[in-house]
Amino acid sequence: MTKNLELTKWVDEVAALCKPDSVHWATGTEEEYQDMLNIMLDAGLATKLDEKKKPGCYLFRSHPSDVARAEMRTFIASRKEEDAGPTNNWIDPVELKATMTKLYDGCMSGRVMYVIPFSMGPIGSPIAKIGVEISDSPYVMINMRIMTRIGTAVLEALGENGEFVRCLHSVGKPLAAGEKDDGWPCVPNVAEKYISHFPEERMIWSFGSGYGGNALLGKKCFALRIAGVQARDEGWLAEHMLIMKLTSPEGKSYYITGAFPSACGKTNLAMLEPTIPGWKVETIGDDIAWMKFGEDGRLYAINPEAGFFGVIPGTSMQSNPNAVKQTLSNSIYTNAGLTDDNDVWWEGSGLPAPDHLIDWKGNDWTPESGEPAAHANARFTTPAAQCPVIAPEWEDPAGVPISAILIGGRRQATIPLVNESTDWNHGIFLGSIMGSEITTADITDKVGQVRRDPFAMLPFMGYHMGDYLQHWINIGKKTDADKLPKIYFVNWFRKDEEGKFMWPGFGDNSRVIKWIIERLSGDAKAETTAIGNLPLPDAIDISGLDITLADMEKLLTVDKEAWLAEIESIRENYLSYGNRLPAELAAELDKLQARLNEM
């Protein structure tokens, strides 16, 4: 229990509303974790995998309606609609609370209400924050134990008067007396799911989904949407970024963050295995970075999570061997295929497809079935401490000093392999225009168009995107310019005229990062161009690669006409921010156009 009166009052209020059969305060112990797993095993909601092949691992199958973040049902309920901005779904908070209060009334009947105190970041770190999630899902309990630090130690750190983010979650399926779950509990109708954020109150309400970021409220909901508002108000950064440590052959270490939209290899980059001798990469985090200024005026970052929640399909010993090794024990798999020998399999695993398995829907599957064995968004939840290349200082409460920030997207043309910003505001400009080309059509977008995703935060913003970009600019005014990280715009996905990738990617991305490190140390020269500082074609180490200097020239070309067309697309996107577009970014766009016209 706790001596924090605000917390006990809130827990009592939620219990009175949701009407659970009992209340359980999470302790965070291994015994409790096993108890939760046993509850789900007994209910038929989990399968224990072969203890020799995957010790301590379990497989879950969610409902087909509950397989990914419900972006269209994710709301920013700021008091003023204009504060949510054009990139968010907004509902009036008074109206939304009324709707959801009715949904919550009695929603935990027949279930246990779990109270989960959790710390985002090492407990006691000056960069960390505390939240409390109330949930009726033991699946949430076990995943939150892996993904965050939970339990009694967090309550002790919270103390009598500590602040915490209120996170309320229910699967939305009460049970009548004697009734048991018949499969994955959730609200099957997507239109009845709600993932709601009340930024001014530092509060999250989630209803109807039991999966991923919809239910594990420390993930995107707190770590980015609510923490982003806290960061804006308190003068720090909460970002959708990996954190990696690079050590040169001389033994000097650098820390780099990186923002990439989905399907751009962010987790692979965080666990990179360099292909150039003498260089070493270690992981601090694969998804989220919180950065605050240290006493020396530099930005220091922590990974606020304690685990990795990664996409399984495509993860293999070829694409990300460290992720595969990390998930061999004490991990949760969701929506993978179950083999006849009680192991898991997924497309892109690098292993031959078995002759038969049970697919993610619970049906018999063979290679001739004509549909995937694993859902495209199937996931693993695994402790960060198990990562074979986790950096020793990954839990340093002071954080690690950031020297560079990578940004990028999936672009077939226009964007060069690497582009160094000329100064902080130019870097923010590059971050504001990044994005990926759409590869599948949907209602609002067309294949081939660029989906602008500033700093990879488009789905995770807790307030107006224009205000967010202004916050980045304001951060640059809080310290000396030479203490700010350098910003680099990278693109591993350039293609030639035949549609083939021009850069090998994966471990060879270390060659680009080597050049970046050499720029930071003053050992590499660059050519000043209309779009930024680019390496000369022979500046990046391509020894041993099937790449010529002519190929490098193409990868580093500034195509004037393509960039002028890019400017028109950027202007159209900027219009959506209205009068909240930072004047500094409008000026950067005008300066870029002027430089291009002088080429």
Describe the structure.
The protein is an alpha+beta fold and 599 residues long. It has three domains: 5-44 and 70-235, 3-Layer(aba) Sandwich (Phosphoenolpyruvate Carboxykinase, domain 1), CATH 3.40.449; 239-306 and 394-597, Phosphoenolpyruvate Carboxykinase, domain 3, CATH 3.90.228.20; 307-386, Phosphoenolpyruvate Carboxykinase, domain 2, CATH 2.170.8. The protein is built from 16 helices and 31 strands. The strands form seven sheets. Strands 1, 4, 5, 6, 7, 8, 9 and 10 form an eight-stranded mixed sheet that branches. A six-stranded mixed sheet has the order 14-12-13-25-29-26, sandwiched between helices. β12 (242-247) and β13 form a beta hairpin. α11 packs across α16.
Strand content: 15-25%
Q: What's the gyration radius in Å?
A: 24 Å
Query: What's the end-to-end separation, in Å?
Result: 68 Å
In which range does the helix fraction lie?
Answer: 25-40%
CATH class of the largest domain: Alpha Beta
CATH topology of the largest domain: Phosphoenolpyruvate Carboxykinase, domain 3
Largest sheet: 8 strands, mixed
Mean pLDDT across the residues is 96
Query: What is the number of beta strands?
Result: 31
CATH architecture of the largest domain: Alpha-Beta Complex
What number of domains?
A: 3
Structure class: alpha+beta
Helix count from the secondary structure assignment: 16
- Overall geometry comes to globular
Which residues form runs of ≥5 with pLDDT under 50? 441-445
Give a quick precis of the structure.
27% of the residues lie in helices and 21% in strands.
